[in-house]
Amino acid sequence: MPLSRNALIAGAVLLVLAATIGLFLLLPRNARPGASSGKLSVAATFLPVADIVRNIGGADVDIVTLLPPGASPHTFQPTPLQVQQLQDVKTIFAIGHGIDDWSLTLAQNKPDIEVVTLDKNIQLRHAADGSVDPHYWLDAANGKIMAQNVAAELSKLNPSHAADFNRRFQTYASELDALDTQIRILFQGKTQNQIVAHHDAWEYFAAAYGLKVDGVLEPVPGRDLTPRELAALENTIKQDNIKTVFSEPELSSQLLLPLAKDTGVNIVNLDPEGGSNGIASYRDILFKNAQTIANNLE
Ligand SMILES: [Zn+2]
Question: Are residues 67 and 124 in the same domain?
């Protein structure tokens, strides 16, 4: 049976990764950049994870963010650059549940690396197909639990700084509590609570802040609606008097413009994963997206 194109590409990526790791192992340890800083070197798969780790690790931790700006974690394929970035790293912090499972591929190639997901003690939601919805960071209460998980893991990796990690966690937890209140204030007095989004990222956010996801253009990342599903979504939009469809700068869909034409909705960009203009921290992800959503609800 012939190998699929995807299998061939995956094989080629693995070969390049393996070759790159081999070259790095040949370098003397002190020739590798960052090896002598004396800090804990960790990696994070993408921005919200990296920023939470930064808030807890402070000056005691060097953090590599693996996902390049503008890329989607859902569809990212690691390159030799990510392997190179991991040379002194023993821990990759990740979300898990499919969104950044490419971190597991990276770890497979370097046996001393552990991937730590931040979902412990988080009440995970399930998508319609039964899979776990990985967008759990889009709720400030979950952000606090993630931060606590980071503090626990960093304390394990560097027990002599456990008090610092826990002190930073306490500070950050109160900041996230305040943020949670600010977001609730944004939605006070809104008569409309239904949103339609391009990518199915907002269920945790909606559940936390009293909204309802009325429909999405991509129930599964990279798969558009069938014509019948699109017709149903257009009906929902008209019935529920939806004025805005929330998309994202890096997403494209053949359906977005026809949908806007058929229903008269505006297309407004959100950024649940961070990194686009002005969304540079975990708190920005929550607050600025909340502001954009609130500004477009009646
Ligand atoms: Zn997503």
Answer: yes
